[in-house]
Amino acid sequence: MKYKLFATDLDGTLLNEHREIDKENIQAIHEYRERGGRVVICSGRSPLSTRWIANTIGLKGEPIIAYNGAVILDETGEVSEQAVFQHDHLLNFWELCEGEGIYAHFYEGDTLLVPTETKWNRNWIENNIPALEKTGGRIEDLERFRGQCQVKLVDDFYQYVKSNQPVITKIAVFNDDDKLANFSKLIEEQVGEMEISSSFNFLNLEISPSGVSKASSLLKLSEKLDIPISQMAAIGDNYNDSLMLSAAGLGIAMGNAPEAVKELADHVTGRNDEAGVAQAIRRYLFE
Length: 287
What we know:
Blueprint: E1 5-8, H1 23-34, E2 38-42, H2 47-56, E3 64-66, E4 71-73, E5 79-82, H3 87-100, E6 103-108, E7 111-114, H4 124-128, H5 139-146, E8 150-153, H6 157-164, E9 168-174, H7 180-190, E10 194-197, E11 204-209, H8 214-225, E12 232-236, H9 242-247, E13 250-253, H10 259-264, E14 267-268, H11 276-285
Helix pairs in contact: 1-11, 3-6, 3-7
């Protein structure tokens, strides 16, 4: 096959609007693997969440890219590489959040650190480990995965960083008042180098350590698996997929992607509620 590896985003791509994965998508993925292709989940979700989804659809034995490239899991599901924030950058960032009245939460492994309970972190465990009932998720496995992640209330994040030296691999920022475009500029001016993107049309910001993206981790997998990036295909639906779609030998945007993301892709497939991933595999990857 011309494309030996297929990297797929999850939310808005492989997952439909009900946070389930259509049977057509699963069938097409396995047909592609039976022909010798490899499938890599490449998501902003946590390592535990990506493993849960991979296991449920039968993708055990494949590497995974989580937290927008900050974490790479090997074929056994163990962390093989991770990028973390410098603690002085975290402290500067938190001071900026407090000064601007912006909410942010932080990902420490599979634990979510939150400064206060809000709509943006409520039910996080259930959202992080979706039930996947129609996809084939088993209740006993669901409970086991959900039991491994937690939400931790941190009243004084500044002191928490000073005292605990946490390993933070991702930050998410939310706001209802259209402040995030300006806040993004303030981060660049006052905090230091961070990678800033969005997975919700800039209703949020997803922040990674400097130099980290889905594309950068795909390049690392390219070296590890001895598959040239030109022989990799990637599919996604939003701004945090942009670099990945541009870097891959074949970039495919979902039909529900913003126009700016579609313009970066080589092809546009159906929407995530139309089994667009399956359409893309059969139309562009099978020869």
